[in-house]
Amino acid sequence: MSPFFTQRKVFAAAILLRVFLFFYGLFQDAYSPLPYTDVDYFVFTDAARYVSQGRSPYERETYRYTPLLAWLLLPTSWPGTAWFSFGKFLFALSDIIAGYLILLILKSPQGQNLPADRALKYASLWLLNPMVATISTRGSSEGLLGVMVVALLWTVVHNHIFLSGFLLGLAVHFKIYPFIYGVSILWYLESRPPSKPRQTLASTLSTFLNPSRLTLLLTSLTTFTALNLLMYALYSKPFLHHTFTHHLHRLDHRHNFSPYSTLLYNSSSSPHTLTLSFSLTHLAFLPQLLLSAFLIPLSLAKKDLPSTMLAQTWAFVSWNK
User: Fold this and answer.
1) How far apart are CA 109 and CA 307, in angstroms?
2) pLDDT in tens, 78-126
3) Of 151, 139, 144, 155, whose CA–CA distance to 188 is shortest?
4) Which of 56, 188, 276, 309 has the highest count of CB atoms within 10 angstroms of its CB?
5) Residues 321/284, Cβ–Cβ less than 8 Å
6) Measured between alpha carbons, how far is 258 from 319 in angstroms, rounded to an integer?
7) What share of the chain is helix, strand, coil (3-state, %, to 5)?
8) Helix/strand/coil (H, E, C) string of 175-232?
């Protein structure tokens, strides 16, 4: 193994990369007409400031996220310029934790069972990836969801099903799309084949609804429901609209690389074709969900859960509208 590829050196390099990009971002924000900080970060921090004043985060135009994100970023509203960057630190830290969990999954016998040096090299594709580090240090919150999903995978392969259900419910509340991983996990948590060759419908159903699957379903649904009820009690209909229903009918013709991107962009320029765009938006869910939530999980999840979740993510993003 190369002297560089030790765990301590790789993680030190990952941290230094993010520190460098963070301070470079401060310099670019101060002296360049093109800011380094993601525009969404200002949306997050404005929403956090509203919450600190006892107001709704949804008073900030274009805040389309759970209030949990604004609550987590409350320190950005504290006095002092250094606190404004708290969110970037939190997102970059999430990157590092996600990288460590990736390493654990790759090394563990319950996961991929790779040799330690090989697992570290694969994990470094995340830890030392400049795109990953740039996204988090610019102030994108994707690192938070990333660490939730990787932690979810770690808990499943180590059979901590109660914690898996909590993380799945939390992740789906945070953003809708992680529900696709629930299908793979349910399919992965299969009981051993029954000893009796002949089975009734009741015994087949009881075999499918094994304790692990029931625990995952109950804990994830309870977590998801409890969080949503709490947020609805605090913020009422704006919470439902901006966190969930808005994403079902939104038309985003610039911010993706899906097969529909050019068609949606061209259609959006004319009021006559805008109706076609909205129709396409609804139809676009069909191949996306068919691939990511059904075909891929049912075909692969029992063989290799980590690879299945990777394929699901790839399909969901590639076919996004």
Assistant:
1) 15
2) 998 899 999 999 999 999 999 999 999 999 887 788 999 999 999 999 9
3) 155
4) 309
5) yes
6) 5
7) 75, 0, 25
8) CCCCHHHHHHHHHHCCCCCCCCCCCCHHHHHHHHCCHHHHHHHHHHHHHHHHHHHHHH
